[in-house]
Amino acid sequence: MFPEFNVKMIWHKETTLPKIDLVVLPGGFSYGDYLRCGAIAAKSPIMKAVKNFYEIGGFVIGICNGFQILTETKILPGALIPNTNQKFICKDQDLVVENNKTFFTSNFEHNRTISIPIAHHDGQYFLNDPEIEELEQNEGIVLKYRDNPNGSIRDIAGVCSKNKRVIGMMPHPERAVDKDLGSVSGLRMFESLISNF
Amino acid sequence: MTLNEKVFKFKVEVILKKGVLDPQGETIKQSININNLGNILDVKQGKLFELTALSKNREHAVKEIERICSDLLTNSVIEEFKYYEVSE
């Protein structure tokens, strides 16, 4: 899809990152989601290097379980808890672009509705009262659900760090990269990032 | 184990903070009330851990347990914990 970029798989037991432009923490169920979703993976040796990468201004995207790992490492605020209906939800999901001033969403218009699939059991975003106001004021809410499927506070589907270089989202942009898959909204996110490199 | 190390046992209780939705607790409450097992106003489901520490003294063991609770066993955004020492 982007032949000018190479992908390197990095094992969780590694302690350093090679020279890279973007860290992607993909979805899945790391360590069986024991304890809490993403909690054990957040303690993986490689996560210290990811935290350093974030601190020096590196680009990071956490998708689904990757988002859960980013909140457990405190790189992003909040926590993900089980969906209110206690069910695994897998479907195409309409989202609203709440903040288009991030490196991942700059190719979208503000308030544009896009469709990206979700597939999760623990997707309910939670953040306490003073912190959620702070997140909103800092324009940290990037994507919101239309017809909130999982009970997330303020319909939040994706958030970003203060420096707008780290994004975490429960929907799967990598599953929306071809018209034949039903949507290219995910592709637009990766194109946004590349246009900002 | 060396001569000056001892075993200390702890129980750790983890529960969701007030204000965090607990759908499992809610479902359990409904089941209690539907089955006429009691008149229960609220149910919160938590976790119980038993930790066996090997340490030079109690103070050191407690320090380790506190760190384990806050660093790994709980996420302070949604959960709170308490721990207590138990005998064998």
Give a quick rundown of the structure:
The complex is a heterodimer of chains A (197) and B (88). Chain A has 197 residues and is of the alpha+beta class.
Protein described:
The complex is a heterodimer of chains A (197) and B (88). Chain A is an alpha+beta fold and 197 residues long. Chain A has one domain (22-196): 3-Layer(aba) Sandwich (Rossmann fold). Chain A contains 4 helices and 9 strands. Chain A has helices spanning 45-55, 65-72, 129-137, 185-196; strands at 22-25, 59-63, 79-81, 89-97, 113-120, 124-126, 141-145, 156-160, 166-169. In chain A, the strands form 2 sheets. Chain A has a 7-stranded mixed beta sheet. Chain A has a two-stranded antiparallel sheet with strand order 3-6. Chain A starts with 21 loop residues before the first strand and ends with a helix. The mean pLDDT of chain A is 95. By secondary structure, chain B is an alpha+beta fold. Chain B has one domain (6-86): Phosphoribosylformylglycinamidine synthase subunit PurS (Mth169, Chain: A, 2-Layer Sandwich). Helices cover 32% and strands 32% of the residues of chain B. Chain B contains 2 helices and 3 strands. Chain B has helices at 23-34, 58-73, and strands at 6-16, 47-55, 79-86. Chain B has a 3-stranded antiparallel beta sheet with strand order 2-1-3, covered by helices on one side. Chain B is elongated, with a radius of gyration of 17 Å. Chains A and B meet through loops of A and helix 1 of B.
